[in-house]
Structure formats: C-alpha cells, structure tokens
Amino acid sequence: MSILEVTNITKKFGGLTANQDVTMNIEKGSITAVIGPNGAGKTTFFNMITGVYQPTSGDIRLEGKSLLGLKPDEVAKRGISRTFQNIRLFGEMSVIENVLVGMHTGLKTNLLGIFLNLPTTKKEELLAEKEAYRLLEHFDLAPFLNEKACNLSYGAQRKLEIARALATKPKLILLDEPAAGMNPAETRELTAIIKNMGQEFNVSVLLIEHDMKLVMEISEHIVVLDHGEKIAEGNPEEIRTNPKVIEAYLGSGAVQTV
After folding, report:
1. 3-state SS, residue 175
2. At what angle do helices 119-138 and 95-102 cross, to 10 degrees?
3. How confident is the model at residue 206 (pLDDT cuts 50, 70, 90)?
4. Cβ 25 vs Cβ 4: under 8 Å
C-alpha cells in the first residue's frame, strides 16, 4: 500500500528544468532512498513534496489526497515532516525546547488558553514535555535537555533535528542527507536509528543520501535521479549493478570496466 504517490511531477525555473516527469510510489512503512549525482534535482524533489515549491505539472498525493497548493505548514499538518541538508535548529533555544517546537502542529492550545493559564492548557503542556523527554531519551539526548542546541556536538545536533521532526508524529519523514558531516561512529549510530524508525515510530522514511554504504544497508527501494529525471529504481542489488546508475556516477567509460 502506497503512502505517497508522485505522478509525473515537473519543476521548471524559467528555462531550467530541475525535475522532469518524475514518478514514484513510497510504500507505507518502507525506507526509500533517492540518490543521484550533485545537481540531479533531489532537493528540489523534496521541496515539492513538502510544499516549499509547487510543481509546474504533475501531482503529489499523501494517502490518496493531493498536496498541491498546500503551504509547508499545511503539508506538515497532513503528516509529512523533514530534516535539512544544513542543520536548522534553534541554536539559542534549549534541546527540549527545540523538540517542543516540533510538537506545536499537534497541540490544541490557543493564545487565550495560554494567557488565562487554563488547566487544560497546563495539562497539554505537561504531556508535551513528557513526550519530548521520551524522544530525547530515545536519541540519548536527555542528559542535554536544558543545554543550548548550538552547544551540542555535530552528531548530536543531527539527532536532535530528527527528534524534532518525529515530534510532529508524521506519517512520512523526509531526511535530507542525514549522514552529511558525520564521522564513522556517528554514521553507524544513525544507520541503526533509521533502520528501526519505522517500527518504533510507525513512520515511513524517504531519504536523500550520498553515503552509499548507508543507503545500501537500510533501503528497501532506491530511486535514482540524474539531471532531474528518474533513470532507475529497484532494490539495492538492482541499483548497484545498473549500467545507467554506474554511468551517472562514474562516467560512460566506467560501465565497460564493471
């Protein structure tokens, strides 16, 4: 069963075509990777799914309902969250405050409730803090809950961004190069986190990643983009041996030597 259906989406910026007729389905509960050389259109593709850009043509459906015309916050309320290639935490806010920010889409509290300090508001805030703490424990970040996010190590900041994205209780989480800048030990820890994410958080995973070892280890399905077009898709073994993929990454001469 598909949770996300992307049908023939194209994105043009003036005379530049960033994505051309890209179609793919993301199965519920799966881990799917989107790979390709630099400039292949991967981040543009993510930006269309999350409402940052609107496709020039085509359709994107979450659980059968179109996302076209929705703004990023509206897409988030539908059940899609994301992380970014460049970490976007609130550096001067505490670790737990960053996670609580991620929960705001699911809270019923309004300004009046906050101003009057209503019992229902206090109860909801307490439950949110407990849930935030549980997430921090899961990512081994609980000892730093009151620390400023900017003071965390790079790997810990990456984990915090994922925790914040999961705080929205998404149906689908998009991870944009989550292993970028990580050392081998941090990457191994991240690999285990993503591999278990579906079972532990009931979420489907779609990721962009350049670390092919990580991609091949955790992905059930891989889609390859090159110059904005889908050139291949399949399981890790099919992608590893696909001549078009080898050529896109290594050049036409590489196909003859593989």
Report:
1. strand
2. 110
3. very high
4. yes
